[in-house]
Amino acid sequence: MIPSGLMEILRSFPATELELLIATRRDLHRHPELAFAERRTSQRIRSRLEVLGVPFRPVGGTGLAADLGEGSGLLMLRADMDALPLTEDNDVPYASTDSGAMHACGHDGHVAIGLAVLERLAARPAAVPIRSLFQPAEEGAGGAEAVVRDGGADGIAGVLGIHLWNELPAGKVGLVAGPQMAAVDEFEIVVTGAGGHAAKPHQTADPVLAAARIVEGLQSIVAREISALDSAVVTVSSIHGGTAFNIIPREVRLRGTARSFSEEVHRALPGKIARIVDGLARACGVEAKADYRRINKATVNHGPTAEIVAAACERLLGPGSIVETRTMGGEDMSVFLERVPGCFFFVGSAPEGRPRPHHSPIFDFDERALAVGTVLLEAAARSLADTLSTR
């Protein structure tokens, strides 16, 4: 049974606008582009902005910032643009035409929604100037930082963003005040030993054994060094070493990710990983070096702004439509939320039938969520703009 709030949004949403939303999304889905290579995507956005007569400028390489109104105190609405390096495995008319790229996280939908909301705000301006940011390279490539370096966040007083979310059905919103998505770090560990004949391990210093012990040892960080009241993840996701069944290799490489919500845990993780890697390498008689890279901090929603967004969403979708949602996935929306108060929220988009998880070759979403996302983001923007105008 379709919830009454969702039914009302779908019933009142203009058919021609929904057709354009779906057509835009499907066009972008057919032609996905990876981080900082979103040239066709950017050109499609430019064409729509030119028709609207909205001034814009390039930011962050392939990104675009379009401003409605002038002055400081801008409210920024952010939509990310990049695809993922995946080969799509969906039999649909709008499947990716590029075997090395796929919109497997809904960014095609975010761009379509961002354009639709901009068109609505251009027709009936909000209480403060609006900046629509179409951001490149969200998927771990530093797109938000590139936008900031280009001045794309200058003059903003607040920020909103949405993410289509296949862990919730259409008509539900995932939202929480405080940390909503995790800080994301990446590490690489190179374990080096003497290597030698697999039949004579006593003559070698075995990096494979050491790597195995390091993988196991890293799991003790979350289990024994992080409070059970906090959240953290340490995952080794890649192991490479060796060339033959009878050769102990000289080198094994490990890659993985560490994720956290609290600033205290975020600061502590690199030292904990380095200590375990160094200690276990010494115990195994090998050498090991850990390189640690910060990708983005936790995505933290401003409490009062989250309340404004929740009220706007609940007004449209009805009581019980807000689901408290946190995830260890990460987002460089955190770059903007560090600078100004704002809110990032999930719009339910799970299609019926088999699960279509994010970052998988079979990802797809319920296109009714395009209408829902447009209505919710516009309403949240207008409510927040009203608040900003009185400050």
Q: How would you characterize the overall build of this protein?
A:
The protein is of the alpha/beta class and 391 residues long. The protein folds into two domains: 4-179 and 299-389, Zn peptidases (Aminopeptidase, 3-Layer(aba) Sandwich), CATH 3.40.630.10; 183-296, Alpha-Beta Plaits (2-Layer Sandwich), CATH 3.30.70. It is built from ten helices and 16 strands. Strand 1 and strand 2 form a beta hairpin. Helix 3 runs parallel beside helix 4 and helix 8 (303-317) crosses helix 10 (368-389).
* Overall strand count: 16
- The coarse overall form would be elongated
Q: List the strand order in the largest sheet.
A: 1-2-4-3-5-16-6-15
CATH homologous superfamily assignment of the largest domain? Zn peptidases
Distance between the termini: 42 Å
SSE pattern, N- to C-terminal: HHHEEEHEHEEEEEHEEEHEEHEHEH
Content-based structural category: alpha/beta
Count of the domains: 2
For the record, the CATH architecture of the largest domain stands as 3-Layer(aba) Sandwich
Determine and state the CATH class of the largest domain: Alpha Beta
| Largest β sheet strand count, sense and barrel closure | 8 strands, mixed
Ranges where pLDDT stays below 50 over 5 or more residues in a row are none
The name CATH uses for the topology of the largest domain is Aminopeptidase
Number of helical elements: 10
Radius of gyration: 23 Å
Q: For the residues shown, what is the average pLDDT?
A: 96
Helix content: 25-40%
Portion in beta strands: 25-35%
